[in-house]
């Protein structure tokens, strides 16, 4: 049994208490999930360009701030929480890339390398994060689950099994969606 498996009941209960209005539950929840969020953010940012101004701690703190406003969500469990956290991190990273691009006054959009383990990198190298966000939004218009798989695995750092659990499908379905979505995104972003 992994540490995450042991913490899952505590996290789920804290999410329910937070939803019920217990303000202390969010602080305690943060203690449980902070290290996991840092690891996920660090894994993502490890592949960033040198000199990237957004650091792991900053990304996690911004995500936590966004999550504070999500107390009204009917949290299912630990994986549901991390799925919402992945969405928050995606929004933060895309907003950061767009702001940096605007600061350059019409300069080229920020180029960000994708981690080879996570997505497309072997063939595409660097990708404009705003273009990736737009491509994911387009993918979601005709296959929402494939877009969710990419978001959970790439921005959330989730495994195939965690992703399958969150989406309520088999591991093989996630694996197939991941392969199809990567191919579609590779073509779209090249």
C-alpha termini separation: 42 Å
Work out the strand percent: under 5%
The coarse overall form would be globular
What is the makeup of the main sheet? 2 strands, antiparallel
Instruction: Name the poorly predicted regions.
Output: 107-125
Features:
single chain, 190 residues, mainly alpha, globular
Write up this protein.
By secondary structure, the protein is mainly alpha-helical. Helices cover 72% and strands 3% of the residues. It is built from 9 helices and 2 strands; from the N terminus they run ααααβαβαααα. The chain has helices spanning 3-19, 23-45, 56-68, 78-103, 121-124, 129-142, 144-155, 160-167, 171-189, and strands at residues 111-113, 126-128. The protein has a two-stranded antiparallel sheet with strand order 1-2. Helix 4 (78-103) crosses helix 7. The longest helix has 26 residues, at 78-103. Mean pLDDT is 75; it is low at 107-125.
